[in-house]
Amino acid sequence: MIIEQISDADFVKFQKLIFEIAGISMTLAKKALVTGRLSKRLRHYNIDNFNEYYRIVTGKDHPDELQIMVDLLTTNETYFFREDKHFDYIKNVILPAHQRSRTFRVWSAASSTGEEAYSTAMLLSDQLGMSPWEIVGSDISTKVLKVAETALYRMEAAQKIPNSYLNKYCLKGVRTQAGWFLIDPKLRKQVTFRQINLMEPLPGIGTFDIIFLRNIMIYFDDPTKTKLIETKIVPSLNPGGYLFIGHSETLNGITDKVKLVVPAIYRKPT
Question: pLDDT, tens digit, for every residue of 45-89?
Fold first, then answer.
């Protein structure tokens, strides 16, 4: 079956839909990406045009299809200990100042398949010892959250995990699981994952000492960024809490409610 190229008119429909759902701004330059990622769903339904698929996505006969579309169109690039200077800052600056009697809480707000959350868990477990801590990982995609919850990764993904952490917190697979590793169940107990759409009201997840929001705002326009940061992220930070964003991102002109302390790291005033 030959699938027709997506027309500009049909692309605009999907463009508006993904913006309304996830706040993601897609330019016309993303037509090829949309075509490539959604073509498999057209084949699934044995249809050859995107207008018909749009009717399926927005109709009532296939209620799960909208989430499948969102999963396919949201980008989920991540790896263990990404931006190692961020983790050095947590280790050397943030954690030494933490009052050990209080639970240290972290929100990985675009956690994808879980590497960011588990990297942080290894660091907290190593540095805080018996002091209480917990991590919430969230994403709009149910597909990547399933991977995060299994906590099973290919050995190739372990390249940036320090050897001491790899030996202490990762269980190397044998026999049928050779070539894979599993995050230690004791560590996993302190990390929870849930689906959260940052464009919708936040569920009751509490406040945090650190929020990771790295490499997600590049997909948002400025009004969406401002609304997200000022109405959801900043209120979710404890006084003195830290917000980590990607090095290609900035909050200049977006908000003054958190202050830059080092590149890509902001702090909420105490």
Answer: 999 899 999 999 999 999 999 999 998 888 667 899 999 999 999
108 pLDDT higher than 80:
yes
Residues 6+ apart with CB under 8 A from 130: none
**Predicted pLDDT of residue 1:** 66
Tell me the Cα Rg of the chain. Answer: 20
| Total-model pTM | 0.88
**CB half-sphere exposure, 191, CA atoms < 13 A:** 29
Which residues are paired to 137 by β-bridges?
108, 193
Collect all residues with Cβ–Cβ distance below 8 Å to 242 and sequence separation of at least 6. 94, 209, 210, 211, 261, 265, 266, 267, 268
Residues catalogued as catalytic: 37, 139
Can you give the chain as a three-state secondary structure string? CCCCCCCHHHHHHHHHHHHHHHCCCCCHHHHHHHHHHHHHHHHHCCCCCHHHHHHHHHCCCCCCHHHHHHHHHCCCCCCCCCCHHHHHHHHHHHHHHCCCCCCEEEEECCCCCCHHHHHHHHHHHHHHCCCCEEEEEEECCHHHHHHHHHCEEEHHHHCCCCHHHHHHHEEECCHHHCCEEEECHHHHCCEEEEECCCCCCCCCCCCEEEEEECCCHHHCCHHHHHHHHHHHHHHHEEEEEEEEECCCCCCCCCCCCCEEEECCEEECCC
Instruction: Evaluate whether 115 touches 156 at the Cβ level (below 8 Å).
Output: no
Placement of tokens 């009717």 in the chain = 55
Q: What φ, ψ does residue 15 adopt, rounded to 5°?
A: -60, -45
